[in-house]
Design brief:
CATH architecture of the largest domain: Roll
Largest sheet: 8 strands, mixed
Number of helices: 10
Oligomer: single chain
Number of strands: 17
Strand order of the largest sheet: 7-8-9-6-10-13-12-11
CATH topology of the largest domain: 2,3-Dihydroxybiphenyl 1,2-Dioxygenase, domain 1
CATH superfamily of the largest domain: 2,3-Dihydroxybiphenyl 1,2-Dioxygenase, domain 1
């Protein structure tokens, strides 16, 4: 089993937390599908393919990504050599999306320049997309789903003896629900079906190939990693706080249980909220807006107004489509150390609030 997991090279990361507006809420242990991390030679060519398929291009820190319901596709790695191969021949043979109508989607995608291949044995409810770096993507059909396209599966090719082991491992570690997909053994995590097929040809690690690794979004990643290490699971990368994650997210259920009034009514909930905020001036509150703090009333009001204003502008920009050129962490830090005169804005806001 150690060799299998080493070959898989799974990575767990809280990819901007629930700020990605994840379409599939986490399971009982706090896990939902997160991302594919690709290693592509031509970022722009791959972005065009995924946007043509219905994804939304955006920036995540230093990364170019495309977002779909259920998964965020990271298009490149930082300073990585070219991929050593495609998905076929690795532990992950292919990944999959599901659409409302395969034939209609295929026609639309082809018109946008997406390289679409027909389904196996003349199937009209199946198609494939293969990128220039040989990422193989299966397309399946569900006419009843609410999204035009959403993430569906990650298909593993392992030896027959390893199938029950990998299925049990995902169930134990990530709370996956064992089952079957067609004739194959499988396990379900919100946003993804993990499908396991046998192969008689030894599969190689995904690390360094076009699909370098997959990632899950995890509630309270630090505690989750501590749990893994206590269970004897060695992490390839220890838990670290990522400054590019952005605004922290407060989920009152973590401290108050599943049936609170959504209001911070006691010291335990207040302490949990303060811990979530850390050194940040703003935290998103799941299902309940946000909370803003400042050194004084003027600064808190400033943060509150600009947070709402920037969120509205970002939503509009995402809806327009295309890449978004966010300010960098260095620009944000420079802005905070040399803000404009808050008194001028304060006078304007005060006049508006008082109606004069």
């Amino acid at each position: 089993m150690r060799r299998l997991i080493s070959a898989l090279w799974v990575m767990w990361i809280l990819a901007a937390g629930t700020a990605w507006a994840q379409a599939f809420p986490p399971n009982e242990v706090g896990v939902t599908m997160g991302h594919w991390h690709l290693n592509t030679r031509d970022v722009e060519a791959n972005r065009k393919i995924f946007v043509g398929m219905g994804g939304t291009a955006m920036k995540a820190g230093n990364f170019e990504v495309v977002r779909f319901p259920g998964v965020v596709v990271y298009l490149h790695q930082n300073q990585a050599p070219p991929p050593t191969g495609g998905t076929v021949g690795s532990v992950v043979n292919h990944v999959g999306f599901i659409v409302q109508n395969v034939q209609a989607s295929s026609a639309k995608w082809k018109a946008a320049g997406v390289p679409v291949l027909p389904g196996n044995e003349g199937r009209t409810d199946q198609a494939f997309v293969v990128t220039p770096d040989q990422l193989r993507i299966e397309i399946l059909e569900d006419k009843s789903q609410k999204f035009p396209i959403q993430h569906h599966h990650v298909h593993f090719n392992v030896s027959e003896a390893e199938i029950p082991q990998i299925q049990a491992w995902y169930a134990k570690v990530f709370g996956a629900k064992p089952g079957k997909r067609g004739a194959n053994q499988a396990a379900d995590i919100p946003g993804v079906n993990l499908t396991f097929s046998k192969t008689d040809v030894p599969a190689v690690t995904t690390k360094g190939r076009v699909l370098d690794h997959i990632g899950f979004d995890v509630k309270n990643l630090e505690a989750f990693c501590e749990k893994l290490e206590a269970a004897g699971i060695k992490l390839d990368r220890p838990y670290t706080k990522n400054p590019q994650i952005g605004v922290p997210v407060y989920d009152i259920r973590d401290a108050g249980g599943p049936a609170t009034s959504m209001l911070v009514r006691n010291s335990a909930l207040a302490k949990a909220l303060a811990t979530t905020l850390g050194d940040k001036p703003v935290a998103l509150m799941r299902g309940h807006g946000n909370v803003v703090v400042g050194l004084d009333v003027q600064m808190a009001v400033r943060y509150a107004i600009y947070t709402e204003m920037n969120a509205r502008l970002q939503t509009i920009a995402i809806g327009i489509g295309g890449p978004i050129n966010y300010i960098s962490a260095a620009e944000g830090a420079a802005r905070e150390t040399a803000p404009d005169d808050p008194a001028r804005a304060w006078d304007l806001w005060k006049k508006k609030a008082l109606g004069r």
